[in-house]
Sequence to fold (551 residues):
Amino acid sequence: MASTNCLRCLARPSLSPTNILNSSFLNGSTSRSKIAAATSTVNPISTKGAAQFSTTSVQSRSPINRPATTSGRKNEKVKGQKTLRIKKKPPPKTGKPPAPGERKAMRKRVVLSNTNALEVQGLRELDAGLVGEWEMGIVREVEENAGDGDWVLEGALGMVEQDNGEGEGETNGEEVIGQVVGLMGSTVDSLRAVDAFKTAQGWGLFRRPGLLVREESVAVSRKLIMSEEGEMLRLVIDGERGTGKSVLLLHAMATAFVRGWIVLNIPEAQEVTNAMNDYAPLPGTTPTLFSQPTYTANWLSQINKANTTLLQDMELSLTHNLPIPIQSNISLSRLCELGARDPDVAWPIFQAFWAELMAEGRPPVLLALDGLNNVMRESMYRAPDVSFVHAHDLAIVNHFVGYLSGERKLGNGGAVIAATNRSHAPKSKSLDLVLTQLQEMQLGEEEITEKDPYEKGYDGRVEWALGVKDVEDVEEAAEEETAEKELSPGPVEVLKLKGLSKKEARGLMEYWAKSGVLRKRVDEEEVAEKWALAGNGVVGEIERGALRMRI
Fold:
């Protein structure tokens, strides 16, 4: 029979409580008190943790003197026992808390100059001379396509005389395509006033702000020049993320400032619709429109700062019924100051200001908006019946889409330009559908995308804002001009931005190298590599791969 003990330990048996009791009772020589004392001194852990005939010492602590607790929890307070309580003091506040709006100002802060960057020599500026060359290009195209005596657009385009005065030395401005041009100081101040510069566009890497002249930017500039005396330009700039939509919109505003236009810009449409501003219903409007007094006051202040040179020389020419008394001969700049000072009267003053701009003899006007996706849906504001207010029912947005749709006309010429946002903007199915239809129409495709019959999320107000109601209207607009088309404004024009050409990419990278930001040799191989890795020339990806991602 197998034994549970080691053979070597049989000669030295261990004394367990059972053996003690058995031996004591058998001999009869030990009293009960001695037996109890003997059994109480035996370690209960040793009887469990060690074999009966083992000589190994017990390693664990004896639990005999451990204080009894009500339960097995650790650090539980026993009745009558004192515990040490140390109160942690909060860290002292050594700094000054940020003032209201200070953190937002730091988040939106845009640096436009880097003194460590090199000055690019021979950089041409975007001035009246360059814009005049683009204007002369329009005149030449009209002259080539028109017959003898068909010079109708000559006076409207306002031909610019070149300094040399010889026709052989004149250019149409297309030789600057693929080059970077600088912005004048006055233009930079005006663009900063209307918040045209964005924080993620990398302006702080270079010595001074500059723009890459693309084929699309020259085309937009020429359309702006033609809209001064011709038909109002209604344009939507669309494209994938990082293709330069906001920068092209900035280029259009810079051209307008150089031409002496009055520019009104909504830099972030999200700020108008995200329910972060106070609002109030406007009495006497059907459907009910909602004004935003504080935002309108700030908007008037931006308009005045950006166009102060022109507005100071313009006086009131109409009679207005305003909530506050004003002089009859004050300038439009002073009128904007009054509206910016008191938000309660900001919207009536803006209506009076706009009526003055539409009066005869005023300069052209450019209405610009960035983030069109945000205004083509319901806003985050609530109506009295707790339903969401549509973005088109906000007074500022309603004013903009009224001219974008073509229902209203600019009295002295001008343009309405909007840019979409593909990075953090909400998705609008109606906007995507209409833009796709208009692009297919402009390309001359026979089949135009139709609505999904199982989709119920289309918004008819979005289609109206872009000048399209259904697919039949798009097909009619694609046909030749008819009497009905001449009476209707028609759909907006869509400019689909794609990647840069290799010529434009090389010109941009050479500008980076001259500024000292790109420390590589710019050759065909390097340009082809960056152009291919950036998805066929997506300018945002080229900048990320060449300037920001350095291994």
